[in-house]
Amino acid sequence: MKIYYPSVCFSVWLLSLMVCAFKADVHVAGDFDKVKVEGGYISGTVDAAGDMHVFKGIPFAAKPVGELRWKAPQPVTPWNGVKVCERFGPSPMQNKPVPFSMWSKEFLIPEQPISEDCLYLNVWTGAKSSSEKRPVLVWIYGGGFVSGGSAVPIYDGAAMAKKGIVFVSANYRVGIFGFFAHPALTKESREHASGNYGLLDQVAALKWVHKNIEKFGGDPGNVTIAGQSAGSMSVNCLVASPLAKGLFQRAIAESGASFTNDYTPLQRAEGEGERLMQSLHIENISGLRALPATELLKKTYSFRGPVIDGYVLPDAIANIFRQHRENKVDLLTGWNEDEGLLFNPVKSAAGFKKEAADRYGADAAAFLRFYPATNDSVAAISQLKLSRDIIFGVQNYTWANMQSRQGGKVYVYRFTRKPPATGGYVKYGAFHTAEVPYAYGNLQFVQRPWEQADYELEKTMLAYWANFARTGNPNGPGLPAWQPYNPGSRQIMILGKSTTPGIMTDYAQLDLLYKKLSSN
Questions:
Q1: Which of the following is catalytic: 27, 53, 182, 432?
Q2: What is the mean pLDDT of residues 223-245?
């Protein structure tokens, strides 16, 4: 940066200030051309208006390859010179992205690069000085713990940064690379745990933020973690984990938590790991680590997730919350109206009624009032609604209730807007993930025939989310008043064609599901 003064008499004084600023790694007057982070110096890009700096592909840990496969993330390897961070790092190892169901390419990672070397994060900041202390939002992506990455177009951080938030997104290992347990891995671990490498990556990214985000004008004492689907489930895990204590103050959980569907206990996860190794005819962990990533992925692809390992997750999440052992946060949470996901063939009305009788016993009649099966078409709709409520609704509903009863501040939404569509996408309503481009100001990246109502909803949701990240309260000037949620009033915000405060009307069916599922 060149600064010109009309009088030469200031030259010595100016030079001394510049030297002091350099020694202190302080970036002033918008000078983010070179930033010192753990590992070395980095450079990024500046937007066309010159008011936002973007850094992509910043390493926050060592490459988790070779002997570091299935180990906790290790300190980043230092580099010389200035690392150019202008492109996203590789997405985590996973199958090639192919649009499917309601998810077009804007909801998926780029086709390339995909690599086991994936521990990179990204920063968007509109700060002019490192001394600004702007609020920080750390985004955690979804993908069923087997896919996803921070380079997905709808996860762009520019719109949030323009609202005064320093936006960070980080990769974490998925699939067998992120969630694989085995007795040998547990034995070699200092903590006698294995299986949660993806969650450990998230903790490492949060620690990086805590140590480095001031360099980008962010406040390490004002951090919100946010995620959707498996990202929301990750947020739930981090709020429950003692390893993340003190790393964030707020949480945004969009469609995902684990209060009735416990994760796999370590011993069972280890047994699954042993059986997998046997099926591959590999005798030891060294042999499995030597297997090329592409081959390992091809031979072992399956749904995976966190493990109750006694370390990252010391107990089932519901138990941690019941015992008040979770990290205390402000919470914004909710789910979408039409995000039911069916993984098995649709049952006939008769088949659905029989399943209701078998599973719900004396409560079957009440169950069928909430999820009717008067004919096959009605039963098909009920099965979608039931899957929505079991997978997402009852989980985030339970979290909101626990949070409120323990004196925590919580805001609940229901997203009901059906995104405009053409072709095969017309049949989907307010589908799973549909709210994300609205909340983060990224409708521009999704090829849909958007209407004015969508842009208004995007503006409103972006403001709510940014306000919450700033203060723990989504409300602000010009926005419909969003009342805190409690189990008595059940006040929520309905985010649809219009934004309207309302009352949760389906609580009784969620209570029934919780009663049944939590007793199993």
A1: 432
A2: 98
